Amino acid sequence: MTIRKIPLIIGGEKVQSATDTWLDVLNPATQEVVAQVPMATPQEVAAAVASAKQAFKTWSQVSLTNRMRIMVRFQELVREHTSEIAELITLEHGKTLPDAEGEVGRALEAVENACAITRLQLGEMANNSANGVDTYTLNKPLGVGVGITAFNFPVMLPAFMFPPAIACGNTFVLKPSEQDPSSTIRFVELALEAGIPAGVINVVHGGPEVVDALCEHQDVKAVSFIGSTHVGTHVYNHASAHGKRAQAMMGAKNHMVIMPDANKDRAINDLLGSAFGAAGQRCMANPVTILVGEARNWLPEIAERAKALKVGPGSQRDADLGPVVSPQAKARILRLLDSGVEQGAELLVDGRNCVVEGYEQGNFVGPTMFSKVTTDMDIYTQEIFGPALCVLEAETLDDAIDIINTNPNGNGTSIFTSSGWYAHKFENEIDVGQVGINVPIPVPVAYFSFTGSRGSKLGDLGPNGKQVISFWTQTKSVTARWFEPDHQDGSEVHTTISLK
């Protein structure tokens, strides 16, 4: 059987890498090798940046209207190919097909936000701001942008980056995860089919050497990253040290607070969906719940519903969660789960020895749930990024807020309650950038910005919404005065700073 080779995309063409280093791309449910991805050579990385730099000369001059029309066509193509893209996500990532289809839907939201570029990239103007002087701003593209994305959303995360960047008139080099690149490549192919000119969007694959080369390249103007805190901190610091504008959306430890007045069934079901969906491999999952007051009595029912969740390959539509992405990820998750037992947490649901019939080689971890968790345990302080739920208890909402605000991360948090007073108090006193009220995964729709905070984010601006336009443009201020053709005033020298 011939193994499919993942291409680079440089100058609008699919290019087979000249590298001698190829990594296997595995189906996480079977360990079958489904493709091989190249670690791009330094020459190929340089060629991708050079292609983007050359394309910027003409693409930056394309009108807002024509850029918008390409984005509209792009979103149409993505919508038409949703099933195909979702199947590629499931094949290489492992998430269930319904979840993969949901990811494509969230990616579409981001592309649709880029379709609004004729509204979002407007400047400001003050007519006659001084004596006969007009002042106005122009939001101009930066040049070559770079995007570096994690494995857990191989289509949605690139959609947060290159569609708005190129809609603003920039050109782009994307470095997707090498663990599940096929859906990303198909996504970019559809962008080219929509009419994005050659060189405007390029794709290279690789590890730390490729990332560093992109961050260091003199022609790269901005770097966007979404992934782990360890890598994101390096990317942000390295890119910033080389004079790039940078943003990094990173790790999390999100908390869901359940008040005793919450709708019980809805709160429990949404908690389990948030904690265990995508096998917990979401930076916006809620791997911690705080049961407040009498809601602590719901603990046995939460555990029983967790045990009832079905684990299976992502291609089985009735599976609630699929495998984790790799054997290495599974081993790391199991080490952390073992530490929870060793450090004194009570294991209510044990998914450590999960085996799926017919898929014995798969990277499966079943739903796992701990109670009696304390904030000094490794299962609390570290991002498990697997199907594990830690339960803490609090007497009051104030106690719950204190727990969350003490945690260094600030990606997202949720509260489930029927009380508007509790909800209002929570949204005002919680020190977290994205808040859900009876919403388990508080990622806003794409015409609002992604606003993670504190230890979960580096940089002032986030993806999506208006902030993404600010990140991918630079503001040029123009102060202009026009005189009549026969104007005579100007014989005097004015040494003051005022505009006269």
UniProtKB/TrEMBL annotation:
Any one of the GO BP annotations: L-valine catabolic process
Domain Aldehyde dehydrogenase residues, every copy: 16-478
Keywords: NAD, Oxidoreductase
Pfam families: Aldedh
Membrane-spanning residues: none
SUPFAM superfamilies in alphabetical order: ALDH-like (SSF53720)
Protein's UniProt keywords contain NAD: yes
Keyword Methyltransferase included in the entry's annotation: no
Domain of life of the organism encoding this protein: Bacteria
EC number: 1.2.1.27
MF annotations from Gene Ontology: methylmalonate-semialdehyde dehydrogenase (acylating, NAD) activity
Record PANTHER family: MALONATE-SEMIALDEHYDE DEHYDROGENASE, METHYLMALONATE-SEMIALDEHYDE DEHYDROGENASE [ACYLATING], MITOCHONDRIAL
Family under the similarity heading: Belongs to the aldehyde dehydrogenase family.
Name of the protein in question: methylmalonate-semialdehyde dehydrogenase (CoA acylating)
Gene symbol of the encoding locus: mmsA
